[in-house]
Amino acid sequence: xxxxxxxxxxxxxxxxxxxxxxxxxxxxxxxxxxxxxxxxxxxxxxxxxxxxxxxxxxxxxxxxxxxxxxxxxxxxxxxxxxxxxxxxxxxxxxxxxxxxxxxxxxxxxxxxxxxxxxxxxxxxxxxxxxxxxxxxxxxxxxxxxxxxxxxxxxxxxxxxxxxxxxxxxxxxxxxxxxxxxxxxxxxxxxxxxxxxxxxxxxxxxxxxxxxxxxxxxxxxxxxxxxxxxxxxxxxxxxxxxxxxxxxxxxxxxxxxxxxxxxxxxxxxxxxxxxxxxxxxxxxxxxxxxxxxxxxxxxxxxxxxxxxxxxxxxxxxxxxxxxxxxxxxxxxxxxxxxxxxxxxxxxxxxxxxxxxxxxxxxxxxxx
Length: 366
What we know:
Layout: H1 10-22, E1 34-40, E2 65-73, E3 137-138, E4 143-144, H2 156-174, H3 177-180, H4 186-189, H5 197-208, E5 228-230, E6 236-245, E7 251-265, E8 274-286, E9 300-309, H6 325-330, E10 338-339, H7 348-354, E11 362-363
Parallel strand pairs: 4-6, 10-11
Antiparallel strand pairs: 1-2, 2-9, 3-6, 5-7, 6-7, 7-8, 8-9
């Protein structure tokens, strides 16, 4: 697979034009995406959890949970990742930053990670204290890659490259320090098929005029550096990448990863740590250039969903807006159910379906 930005050879382009004009059924197709915005809200619970563990947003304003997903079909495509057990999820002790790191996730776990009964508050020195993420991997080390095998139009080596570049997209979109500080995710966007015009239009609008329908946070993690700053240089992650043969022999890659971002206020001397937790599922199609118009080293987006805790409820700024104790003290209860942001035992599809119709809710812990 070539580098992003390389053009299609002239002879292949001319062949496509001839076949398209002649109406050949084998002519490459420009990927067309049909977009549908799905907003799922979480219903509030009757009681109020302990403050250190709760996110109870004011109506359409605060922290809490919102779930929002943009489904984009390159030809049809929606993948259901098979459930299973994660080896080592509970191994080496329960919770706590002093326990041994978890083995990388290889399958969906059967249940959420146990809660830390000590109710430990995070600090600037230990921003993941009291969180299951204390045992998760750092950056891409927490994202499991499967063994490559020849699939669809790709050889084993090409599949391995596609998997690595899929993980590169996750790093460029959700872990890159500049992007986290609010910069435009140029490296990540360069990996998306430029011929997928409606996706390109969405991206242009999302960064020019972000809104609930055109939200860059669906694909990218960004914080406004004038308001908050991330603590340290580590983002904790847990998730995995899977793949299968897709439409027209494409290699369809599904990424399902949870990211944990600790932050403090941008003002000097601030030391109260708030954690923003984002789970994203991104499905990518590495298309056969003989059948789909694409550029070497780029993929077509099939679908993307995001589920966020303490990132701002009804937030259309284009940046995550974590809330701290002062905001939580004046926030009312959400109208959605209580959700554990660390629970990876259910699929994103199930989570969004279960919370459809709610606007804001409550995270059981951060």
